[in-house]
Design a protein that fits this description.
Blueprint (H helix, E strand, L loop, with lengths): L4 E2 L37 E6 L13 E6 L3 E8 L4 E2 L1 E3 L5 E4 L8 E9 L5 E9 L7 E2 L1 E3 L6 E2 L5 E5 L8 H5 L2 E6 L4 E7 L2 E6 L8 E6 L5 E3 L2 E3 L3 E7 L3 E6 L4 E6 L2 E7 L10 E6 L2 E9 L1 H8 L2 E9 L6 E4 L17 E3 L1 H10 L5 E5 L3 E2 L13 H5 L10
Pathway: Cell wall biogenesis; peptidoglycan biosynthesis
Keywords: Acyltransferase, Cell shape, Cell wall biogenesis/degradation, Lipoprotein, Peptidoglycan synthesis, Transferase
Organism: Asanoa ishikariensis
Length: 396
């Protein structure tokens, strides 16, 4: 799952979801068929999952098998009406995964053919039936959709309709594959029991094409629940626009593809309501909005103010926004309630440059950014981030 392409492994069918059965080695004879014309094949093959005549097989099943003395291995899966199912062979050539979830209640026949260096082929066959559609399914969704163009700090965000049990998160993660062009190292990280993110080791390279696929439809989660659907998304990373704010200078430096394109005077949070030091991401953008803090701050400190060019950075209410009332203090004094104040002119300009997923790093304030207060994926080192994966970094 890690590395240039986030690799996805293949999930063995959970014990107890199919009828038990021990596979027998095949030397050319197919179960239920006549003896092969060449029974003395050097190669051997056996399908281990799903077992022959198994029923109630999860729709997410992979075809697991063993071979010996095989120089070439091929897998074929056909539905009961003879339609072939596409799939991919694992790197270790011990399993084969259909390109999508199988149909609920349908029957299939898997055939594994192993060819030895003598040119003779041995086959193993297993006919099985997929379980009926369960009543307890969990939706899988993506924050981003096809065709999105996002900033270089944007994590790939996947959400689940309910909490994924701890013991099943590695199973889910092995069915999640990210392909970046150009290739970039990265990892998935569980942000919460219902949410998982993917980020590369460094910011995405500008103009990267990203494809991610979740082969999760029918995947067991225990206690009779299953993931509902597969999911694929194709999107693009935009230019490398990066913002850096230094509290000591009260300036924001904006770079695009590595070049400084503007320096902006700012006013940050005053001492009683400091801005957060850390790396944040633009979560949403609003040309016009209203800040209402009476409930949060009370009648004495609270306010209700019209805001222009607002860009959310945290769930707690930190934004970059135009603040014409503080233009006299911008560049010299912090007077905000935690936001990054800029002038109307600079706010309009910056709003026109940024997109969702663009990163901003604030330095030197009295308060550190709390992980989870926004998309704080970049507020951790890559090693710290990888600790949130259900699969150890060394095994990815």
């Amino acid at each position: 799952m890690l590395a240039a392409v986030a690799m996805a492994g293949l999930l063995s069918v959970t014990a107890g979801c199919t009828k038990s059965g021990n596979a027998a080695w095949s030397d050319g004879a197919k179960p239920g068929s006549s003896q092969s014309a060449e029974p003395d094949t050097k190669a051997k093959a056996a399908i281990t999952e799903p077992a022959a005549d198994a029923s109630d097989v999860p729709a997410s099943t992979a075809i697991a098998f063993d071979t010996t003395d095989a120089v070439e291995t091929a897998v074929e899966l056909k539905s009961s009406d003879g339609e072939s199912v596409k799939g991919t062979l694992s790197a270790d050539k011990k399993s084969w995964l259909p390109t999508g979830a199988l149909e609920w209640g349908a029957s299939y026949t898997a055939t594994v053919t192993a060819t030895g260096d003598d040119g003779k082929a041995a086959t193993a066959e297993s006919t099985f039936k997929v379980m009926a559609k369960p009543g307890n399914t969990v939706a899988v969704s993506s924050f981003l959709g096809d065709g999105a163009v996002v900033g270089v700090g944007m994590p790939m965000i996947v959400k689940f309709g309910k909490a994924i049990p701890q013991d099943y998160r590695d199973d889910v993660q092995r069915r999640m594959k990210v392909t970046a062009t150009p290739a970039q190292e990265g990892t998935w990280a569980w942000i919460s029991p219902t949410e998982i993110h993917f980020r590369p080791k460094e910011f995405w390279q500008a103009n990267t094409k990203v494809h991610y696929k979740l082969q999760t439809g029918g995947l067991p989660l225990g206690n009779g629940s299953f993931l509902r659907n597969d999911l694929t998304v194709d999107l693009k990373i935009g230019p490398a626009l990066v913002m850096t704010v230094n509290n000591s200078t009260k300036r924001m430096t904006v770079t695009k593809d590595g070049k400084v394109i503007k320096t902006i005077k700012v006013s940050l949070g005053k001492k009683s309501t400091p801005s957060s030091t850390g790396t944040m991401i633009v979560i949403e953008k609003k040309r016009k909005t209203v800040f209402d803090t009476f409930e949060e701050l009370g009648p004495e400190e609270g306010y209700r103010t019209d805001i222009d060019f607002a860009q959310r950075l945290t769930w707690g209410g930190e934004f970059i926004h135009a603040a014409p009332w503080s233009e006299g203090q911008q560049g010299t004094t912090n007077v905000s309630h935690g936001c990054v104040n800029v002038s109307m002119k600079d706010g309009e300009w910056l709003f026109g440059q940024t997109r969702i997923g663009d990163p901003i790093t604030v330095k030197g304030t009295e308060r550190k950014l709390q992980n989870g207060n926004g998309w704080t994926d970049w507020n951790m080192t890559f090693a710290e981030y990888a600790e949130l994966s259900a699969i150890p970094l060394s095994d990815q």
